[in-house]
User: Fold this.
Amino acid sequence: MTQAASYQDAPRHGASSTEGGRLSARNFKRLGAYIYDYSGIKMPQSKATMLEGRLRRRLRATGIETLDAYCDFLFDGHGIEREAIHLIDAVTTNKTDFFREPNHFDVLRQTILPGLKEQGVRRVRTWSAACSTGAEPYTMAMVLEDYRQTCNGPDYSILATDLSTQVLEVATKGIYTQEMIRPVPADLRRRFVMSARDPARGEVRIVPQLRSRVGCMRLNFMDDVYRVGDPMHVIFCRNVLIYFDKKTQTHVLNRLVDHLLPGGHLLIGHSESITGMNLPVRQLANTVFVKE
Assistant:
């Protein structure tokens, strides 16, 4: 994306929490409406301080002096076309862990994959929607590869999508801290994680064998079309629906189910629900659903 001509190459460091002033009520409302229309993410008044803090990073990147001037640049100076991706990157929350909500991976390993193998499926198509920095799709890859090796399971591919370009860059590289991979079982860590040559760096990298199975792509749940290819056997969409209102949740889940094969599985976060949405699915386990 081409940056505005007034952008500075280097950010200013050491800025205070009051740099750029506060957002006016009008500009907070304008930003909230744009963020909701673009991404479906709710921006209530309770998140005003959080939004201001994150947008101060964009002030340093752009060289714009105040938050209200930044909004003028976006909405009155027609900067939104150049800045939209950076704005959305700044406001999205990207909490993720390896083997987060581990019972989902137990269901994948013990129920879903044996069922697909019994059906004679030769290649399992899976999708990690809202993949963040990649912990979820690489956890899926570890489970799928382990099942392929130890149980003569089917081949597989994993699509990893997210709204944020920043987290997709991390996911593509597959480099993480030692601390982040602690939840990975020791056997899987030994087989699928490489340590850095310099231990002082405290970094690890997912092995090429798994990285080659994960294709990363930017996708906005508000897009008219999800260009994700053939229907999926398994879709993970966890802990992102909580940022949407009920109308948007229903819209997104219906679109995801449209991209499932009949009999395919949808897994959502433990704090999320499909109650009242009338989706064409039945429940298999807690927050695990099968398309009818």
Summary: The radius of gyration is 21 Å. The first strand starts at residue 123 and ends at 129. Residues 1-16 have pLDDT under 50 and may be disordered. Residues 135-151 form the longest helix (17 residues).
